[in-house]
Design a protein that fits this description.
globular, mainly alpha, about 220 residues, about 70% helix
Length: about 220
């Protein structure tokens, strides 16, 4: 039985409103008005809804991105991912997130503006790290050494840069964004191949995605 709003915890209210918030943030911004409109749509008391987001805009954005994490995992079966190369797993995970964000690009643009504020830099970096961590775990990564951190830091950078292209991409099926993502990966692959030749490493040595992704820089959001 689905709990009524009187029975819901604040965490449950937050989870219920998170996927709906961007629909209203696109028009009202990441403000209290978006929370109250989303609450009305769900039949949740506005006062209770506001209490679920005491941190304001960044907490609303945090909840939305957390819902994207969950929906991404639900959309991609581990059995399907397991049949792909590591590179294709990461590409598929990023592109799945783009699909989930696709109908809310104006809300994403507004969220990026909020995250770009100096006072939100630390929180924005944390959200980028979490997204990268969720994707790497979904891809089957179990590293515990320095690679664990390098992979997540650099993938967070790739993802953030890709989103900056994505919000203004008017091409069919976001072809420009997909091409941008592919170029970022291919560019580092070329660098690694050239470095391997310079060091005299045999052409037969395998170049792993986990290795070359560490060469990508983490751009400011």
């Amino acid at each position: 039985m689905t709990p009524t709003h009187q029975d819901m915890t604040l965490d449950e209210v937050r989870a219920a409103l998170a996927p709906i918030l961007p629909r209203h943030a696109a028009f009202d911004g990441w403000r209290r008005e978006a929370v109250t409109m989303a609450a009305a749509q769900c039949g949740i008391d506005a006062g209770i809804a506001v209490l679920a987001f005491p941190g304001g805009a960044m907490e609303m954005i945090d909840a939305w991105f957390e819902s994207i994490d969950s929906r991404m995992r639900e959309a991609l079966l581990q059995e399907k991912l397991a049949t792909l190369s590591i590179r294709m797993r990461i590409t598929t995970l990023v592109e799945t997130r783009l699909t989930l964000l696709g109908r809310d690009r104006e809300a994403l643009r507004r969220a990026q503006a909020v995250m770009a504020m100096p006072r939100n830099a630390a929180a924005a970096a944390r959200l980028g790290w979490r997204a990268a961590d969720v994707m790497w775990r979904a891809a089957g990564d179990e590293s515990t050494d320095l690679n664990h951190y390098t992979k997540r830091l650099t993938l967070a950078g790739v993802y953030a840069a890709t989103l900056l292209v994505f919000v203004d991409d008017e091409s069919e099926d976001w072809a420009e964004t997909r091409a941008f993502l592919a170029r970022r990966i291919e560019g580092v692959m070329r660098f690694e191949r050239a470095k391997a030749q310079w060091k005299g490493i045999g052409a037969g040595e395998r170049l792993s995605f986990a290795r070359f992704i560490g060469r990508l820089r983490y751009p400011a959001i």
